[in-house]
């Protein structure tokens, strides 16, 4: 969901009347949302040009390669194309859209970049915390006692992924060899589903009665309706794994003006 935040904040910067002056200004607004960028092109289409001062644009197109939302995490490719944009420049404080902001997004993550990110303690800690959040409180506390060492991901045929890591209890020297393999699917465009997951510890398969609640927790935790917030709708249209190469994600994002907070009655 950090990606959604970056994406929306970039577009909000672009659709303000001050942001729609030049493509270069728009490019700088997007670039500022990342730690670093290898290649980036932004084009703002306006016809007629006087629409700029009215907070309107026909289309915004973003094409980025080698984008780093974190120093340790690289996005191989990010392509964004919006529908016509229309904000109210007299909307007062905050963003007021005269029509919902809609965009198509294409995101590419390579196997090499994923494994490079997994070598970072910062990224592995975030993943451990994220995994713990999908478990019951007692199970999550158990997970936090362990360190994940030498994680590696392999992209497999049939939209499957395999992850390997060593699990070491903090303060202990013994390590467990963990292998997780699962297919990935998206339910109703918004929930990640594990397909025929398998987990082994030191080569011994984990029983199905343990796997089922884990898979259920992942599906419940990764629900875009809950993660995106009330004013944002996000849907994954395609999740495709190219074996040994990359994960391709095609998504749709729609942002509306956030609902006004109820007025606080005066005494």
Descriptive report:
With 267 residues, the chain is an alpha+beta fold. It has helices at 2-15, 23-31, 111-118, 121-133, 137-144, 208-221, 224-228; strands at 36-45, 56-57, 59-70, 73-82, 85-86, 101-110, 146-156, 160-169, 175-187, 191-201, 204-205, 232-242, 246-255. The protein is built from 7 helices and 13 strands. The strands form 3 sheets. Strands 1-3-4-6-13-12 form a 6-stranded antiparallel beta sheet. The longest helix has 14 residues, at 2-15. 18% of the residues are buried.
Note the main attributes of this structure.
6-stranded antiparallel sheet; alpha+beta; 27% helix; 267 residues; 7 helices
Briefly characterize the structure.
By secondary structure, this protein is an alpha+beta fold. It is built from seven helices and 13 strands.
């Amino acid at each position: 969901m950090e990606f959604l935040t970056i994406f929306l904040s970039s577009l909000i910067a672009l659709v303000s009347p001050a942001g729609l002056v030049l493509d270069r200004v728009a490019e700088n607004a997007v670039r500022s949302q990342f730690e670093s960028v290898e290649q980036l092109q932004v084009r703002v289409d306006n016809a007629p040009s006087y629409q700029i001062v009215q907070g309107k644009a026909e289309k915004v197109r973003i094409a980025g390669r080698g984008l780093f939302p974190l120093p340790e995490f690289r996005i191989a490719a990010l392509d964004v194309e919006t529908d016509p944009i229309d904000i109210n420049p007299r909307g007062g404080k905050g963003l007021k859209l005269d029509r919902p902001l809609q965009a198509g997004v294409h995101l590419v993550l390579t196997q090499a970049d994923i494994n490079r990110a997994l070598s970072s303690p910062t990224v592995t800690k975030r993943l451990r915390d994220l995994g713990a959040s999908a478990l019951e409180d007692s199970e999550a506390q158990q997970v936090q006692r362990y360190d994940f060492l030498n994680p590696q991901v392999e992209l497999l045929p049939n939209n499957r992924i395999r992850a390997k890591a060593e699990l070491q209890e903090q303060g202990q020297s013994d390590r467990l060899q963990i292998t997780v393999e699962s297919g990935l699917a998206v339910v109703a465009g918004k929930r990640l589903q594990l397909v025929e997951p398998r987990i082994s510890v030191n080569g011994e398969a984990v029983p199905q009665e343990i796997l089922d609640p884990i898979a259920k927790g992942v599906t419940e935790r990764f629900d875009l309706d809950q993660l995106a917030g009330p004013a944002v709708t996000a849907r994954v249209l395609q999740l495709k794994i190219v074996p040994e190469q990359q994960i391709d994600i095609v998504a749709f994002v729609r942002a509306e003006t956030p609902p006004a907070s109820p007025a606080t009655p005066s005494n």
